Amino acid sequence: MKVLIVGGGGREHALAWKCAQSPRVAHVFVAPGNAGTALEPRTTNVAIAAEDTDALLDFATREDIDLTIVGPEGPLVAGIVDRFAAAKRPCFGPTRAAARLEGSKAFTKEFLQRYKIPTASYATFTAADFDADYVKTLRLPLVVKADGLAAGKGVVICHTHESTIETATAMLRGSFGAAGNTIVIEEFLSGEEASFIVVAHHDQVIALASSQDHKRRDDGDLGPNTGGMGAYSPAPIVTPAQHARIMREVIEPTLQGLRNDGNPYVGFLYAGLMIADDGTPNVIEFNCRLGDPETQPILMRLQSDFVELCEAALHGNLHEISPQWDSRAALGVVMAAGGYPGAYAKGDVIHGLDAAARLPGKVFHAGTQQQGTEVLTAGGRVLCAVGLGDSVEAAQHQAYRLVDAIHWNLVQYRRDIGHRAVAREINSGAK
Ligand code: AMP
């Protein structure tokens, strides 16, 4: 069969790499892909942007693609699954209506509250009804969020009422474009974050291996928020008891609620959680797709056929399969261009990829571009180096050996990806 992966980041490189390993797959196309996907066996890049649904559907029809898997949220929120379904082309992901869970934070907060799923208390405002006096009565710190998609940047934590009101006013005046026409102001939650990703078809659901990412740019979880600077799997905070609680209190009521509302969910569903000290799994956000960079370590651990998993979810046969996971830990370190998540340079030559390819582990590409025999930087997050090991610490060691082999002008990365899990391992005496 032929598979089309939509997107061109590190997540999509991991998806393409994993799909190409399936014995059922003759060829994988990636639109638009990157220098890493271009080098994978049985894989070809196609010069179509991830948002260009018309061209993607034309291509899928022309090539008679059997399965399309969508990486990023943009095309899902814009309705690519509905378009493909209307043309009877299999496309794995949620419909536009179900993808609102990621596309609108105000929609999601109302949904969570209505179905009594744990989340921070909140209020929503537009420019017409913003109430600064009411905001002054709320307990600090507060979190101000743009309602729509803002590439992970539309969230500001405020420690004074003045800064909350200022941030809210700026968003409502358009500092995040139309995404901030509606805003959410919510209670600040403390605890430890975990990513919980499932694959679902209506009421059928299988949890993927747990994972945790690092959103802040700098060591010690400091500095500005980014799309993610590294991730590892499994996440020790998701114990079997915690796993059962998340399924019961978050995932099952969410899928049930969507069905009740007439928007049954098909696809990957990612719950960003803040696990409180008492174990309450508060929902911070939902994503309607796999996470980046969580996908890279998660798929490194998947031993069974990923295409089979997606097809079972697409056709409602999830009860027939049970994915097998490598018991080892996987850990990915994102290597980014200097300046990211602000302005950064493109076009720097990446050195050491050949040396890294001879080491254990796997380097997934994100913002890269092939030029002649060289690979150049072409985005903010450039690579994700993933190691495997019997402990998170061992996986971390393998990942950083890859990182140390690679260099370009002004490369930046964190040296402490996995630090919480490693500290847990040391405290518990695990090796
Ligand atoms: P979001 O885009 O909603 O995932 O938010 C980005 C990041 O902001 C999250 O990963 C958290 O680290 C932080 N965050 C969002 N909402 C809250 C909250 N209510 N309390 C504490 N931290 C939050």
What do you see in this structure?
- By secondary structure, the chain is α+β, with helices and mostly antiparallel strands.
- It is built from 15 helices and 23 strands.
- The chain has helices at residues 10-20, 35-39, 53-62, 73-78, 80-86, 100-103, 105-114, 132-136, 161-172, 240-260, 295-301, 306-315, 353-357, 392-405, 419-428; strands at residues 2-7, 27-32, 43-45, 67-70, 91-92, 122-126, 142-146, 155-158, 182-187, 192-201, 204-207, 212-213, 216-218, 222-225, 230-233, 266-275, 281-287, 329-337, 362-365, 368-371, 374-377, 381-389, 411-412.
- The strands form 6 sheets. Strands 12, 15, 18, 19, 22 and 23 form a 6-stranded antiparallel beta sheet that branches.
- Strand 10 and strand 11 form a beta hairpin.
- It is globular.
- The relative contact order is 0.13.
- The model has no long low-confidence stretch (mean pLDDT 95).
- The structure holds adenosine monophosphate.
- Adenosine monophosphate (AMP) is lined by residues 120, 143, 145, 152, 155, 186, 188-189, 193, 215, 225, 272, 284-285.
Largest β sheet strand count, sense and barrel closure? 6 strands, antiparallel
Percent in helix: 25-40%
The count of DSSP E runs of length 2 or more, i.e. the number of strands, is 23
Q: Can you count the helices?
A: 15
What is Rg? 21 Å
Overall structural class, as computed from helix and strand content, comes to alpha+beta
Unreliable parts:
none
The percentage of residues in β strands lies in 25-35%
Which cofactors or ions or other ligands sit in this model?
Answer: adenosine monophosphate
Q: Mean of residue pLDDT?
A: 95
Instruction: Describe the global form.
Output: globular
Terminal residue distance: 42 Å
